[in-house]
Automatic annotation (TrEMBL):
Protein name: TauD/TfdA-like domain-containing protein
Organism the protein comes from: Aspergillus tubingensis (strain CBS 134.48)
TauD/TfdA-like domain span: 19-356
Signal peptide range: none
Gene3D superfamilies per record: Clavaminate synthase-like
Length: 361
């Protein structure tokens, strides 16, 4: 198991920045970045080197506003755009371009959401360990989450991280050999279902957004047409074709109204080389739902066992937000994260804003 010494504050490359380790194997609090102006390239280089080592960096009281937040993210890489912005029911109170994602518990008018509201129910999935953007084929790199307005101290709202590089290193060799060639399918709707399995509307949305059903339609159509050409049960076949095409058109119409994230599916290797650190990593999370080539039923126990392993306390760092303007940056290609919830829900504002960039490794 790789460890990082916690005996003293260390400096990386240049004395400009300092990094105080927060956990034996990953995570550090960074001091010395001046966010009041564009961050110099030399400092960007130091931050990249630190991210390769720690995976998670915490910056206190940055005083960043929305514009400088997104500008800093663009210095690190190409921004991911929230395709849900502008869709029905999605508040557009932040960046009209979608580069700054709304992770808060308020609606478009800044009012606190009820825990039973549709958006709150969807956000229950963020309380499970996951990686941002794994449901896209082009995956996410760094995420930068900033506290715009925090709830009162003592009411919760921390963010937890799991070290999936060290979790991989600690696996038994037999397990490593068994899973080394696995490819995992990821879907945003998988985590939304796991977060609120009792919500009937979410269950319906998960079913409707499952594009795997649509892939079977050409085969079913071919069977019906062959039966009709052979004169077998013609009336029943005609009814079946009508229902099949009606189902397909209805599903396509519904899918066209959903944001890209709800329908997208990403296929990624489970075991990956994290190139910046040259360490192997488990790339999984609550978006993962199936091993390619295996059934969902056979995949489920494997994914659940690996998730239990990687989210053990010894691999987890929980960061408490202290001040408005605090920001946490993490590398989605080597850590998982989750929101810890708390008594603030439905009572106090927790306005969080996130920029995410594409992985460039």
């Amino acid at each position: 198991m790789a460890t990082i010494t916690t005996t003293a504050t260390t400096a990386i490359r240049r004395p400009t920045l300092t990094f105080r380790p927060l956990h034996p194997s990953f995570g550090a609090e960074c001091e010395g970045v001046d966010f009041s102006q564009p961050v110099p390239d030399a400092v960007i280089g130091q931050l990249r080197a630190a991210m390769a080592t720690y995976g998670v960096l915490v910056f206190r009281a940055t005083r960043l506003d929305d514009a400088r937040h997104t500008a800093f993210a663009r210095q690190l890489g190409e921004p991911m755009v929230d395709s849900a912005v502008g869709k029905p029911g999605v508040p557009n109170r932040l960046d009209p371009k979608g580069e700054l994602m709304d992770i808060g518990n308020v609606d478009g008018d800044g009012r606190i959401l009820s825990p039973t509201s549709w958006r709150s129910q969807l956000l229950r999935g963020t309380r499970l360990f996951h990686v941002d953007g794994s449901y896209f084929q082009r995956r996410a790199g760094y995420s930068l989450l900033r506290a715009h307005q925090l709830p009162p101290r003592g009411t919760g709202g921390a963010t937890a991280f799991a070290d999936t590089r060290t979790a991989y290193e600690d696996l038994a060799e037999e397990t490593k050999n068994r899973i080394q060639n696995y490819m995992l399918w990821h879907s945003l709707m998988q985590s939304r279902y796991l977060g609120a399995p009792d919500n009937r509307l979410i269950r319906l949305l998960v079913s409707v957004s499952d594009v795997d059903d649509l892939r079977r339609i050409p085969y079913l159509t071919a069977v019906f047409l062959v039966a009709r050409l052979l004169g077998i049960w013609v009336d029943m076949v005609d009814v079946g074709l009508f229902l099949l095409f009606s189902f397909a058109l209805g599903r396509i119409l519904v899918l066209s109204l959903l944001p890209e994230a709800a329908t997208s599916r990403g296929l990624h290797p489970l075991v990956q080389l994290h190139k910046p650190s040259n360490r192997m990593n488990l790339y999984l999370g609550s978006h993962a739902y199936q091993i390619d080539g295996k059934s969902k039923a056979d995949s489920k126990p494997v994914i659940e066992a690996l998730m239990r392993h990687a989210s053990q306390d010894k691999y987890v760092l929980t960061v408490d937000w202290q001040n408005n303007g605090d920001m946490i940056m993490w590398d989605n290609t080597c850590v998982m994260h989750r929101s810890c919830g708390g008594s603030y829900q439905g009572r106090y504002v927790r306005d969080m804003r996130r920029a995410t960039i594409f992985d460039s490794a």
